[in-house]
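Q: Structure for this?
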Amino acid sequence: MDFNKRVVDTIRSKRSAVCVGLDVEPGKLPQILKNEKDPVLKFNKEIIEATQEFTAAYKPNLAFYEQFGTKGFEYFEKTLDMMGGDVLKIADAKRGDIGNTSKKYAHAFFETFNCDAITLSPYMGEDSVTPFLEREDKGVFILALTSNRGSFDFQMQKMSDGRFLYEIVIEKINSWNIKNNCGLVIGATHPQMFEGIRKLAPGIPYLIPGIGAQGGDLENTVKYGFVKDEVLALVNSSRGIIFASDGPDFAERAGEEAKKLRDMINSYL
Amino acid sequence: MDFNKRVVDTIRSKRSAVCVGLDVEPGKLPQILKNEKDPVLKFNKEIIEATQEFTAAYKPNLAFYEQFGTKGFEYFEKTLDMMGGDVLKIADAKRGDIGNTSKKYAHAFFETFNCDAITLSPYMGEDSVTPFLEREDKGVFILALTSNRGSFDFQMQKMSDGRFLYEIVIEKINSWNIKNNCGLVIGATHPQMFEGIRKLAPGIPYLIPGIGAQGGDLENTVKYGFVKDEVLALVNSSRGIIFASDGPDFAERAGEEAKKLRDMINSYL
């Protein structure tokens, strides 16, 4: 089954479009885990157990693992192993390099780490992306319009034909999507753009960060970013779920926040 | 001392603008290392020992380490430890994320791994880059015009004011370079552009990949990409040096190729 169909199927069977960002920060771990042998892994395990029922995908961002050095990659591998088979495992890595090198990254994330998908940066163009598209069951979410302030620096600059750079990027991504395994990263901080973007890329899934700590607008995100008959978007929340509480109830509260986000999204559909 | 001055000083004191790309590939290792306990580390150690005299910098590309999973990061850390203090350690990682996340990557590469510099992708704009610029002694090389075919997809597309995207990127990078620790990645496959680029960014260092296997033009690269009185560029070669031979003479041959590249660059100056 191709990756984009896997996204639709997972969202449908879980009745959830929630993606939980597993961006662990040692300084924010609950006191109660302080005496654990491995507080980071214990934290991720409890968060995953408490949220998995309400979640279609997990998205560990590699930066939060690389901060620990070699040890962090062990955390990353073990965290992936904790996830059940009914969720998508998305490596938020924003990789992209010349073809020869992207091939190695694809091997790393799809074979060695066995992730289902990876986020990519499009700046280096087609041959930096295509090595990730060889397996139809594995997918990519390519940065198109991101949730941060810096998205105005280049992505929202006008090209010679009057379009924004991100529109040119989306057009190219459409042309690369031969095996139906390309998706887009579109930040929830730009809900006014979603309607136009859906016209450019009607049939491919979005990964939508920027809800919660970054202030994105959930209602308009769902209204304009989603496709009604076939839910084609994953809404990510990281800090808003995993750090909902730093007390002994941290896992329970994370589960509640994941459930709440799931229900809010579903209520807007 | 700020990073860009460190680049100039290192090139001057080593009388070399050579950067060796330590992109290890298990399938290409010499037979003679097959029975080593750790062929990858032994290979890197011998390559570093044979080339360090002729080299201003080493640039391990993370993809080639991530392909091994957790083990690969141990290789990466140990490989960095093998390098002497008279060379620059550049993590070719092409990272870049929202500010909060880039901060973690900066910590990972500058503190945990103790690299001197990292390569970044500019697509997410200013707040994805600035967390890497806090320490003046550590630097970044930001993708501007890359050596691959895909550089035509976006980087060489025209903006509404008639400039290319990469020119806008360079203009922004200049404005971020407050602590004199920003450099550019400019591929040697575009030597005809170097003259114009040097006018846009006269005083900042370039990291120049694309020589060797990718077919870049060394003479014109040096003629137009370098600055005469103060050598402001590192020319990277990976496969052309480290896989010069797969026989028992692999390290000796790598040293010869590094020396040859150093001497050719110096002869064009």
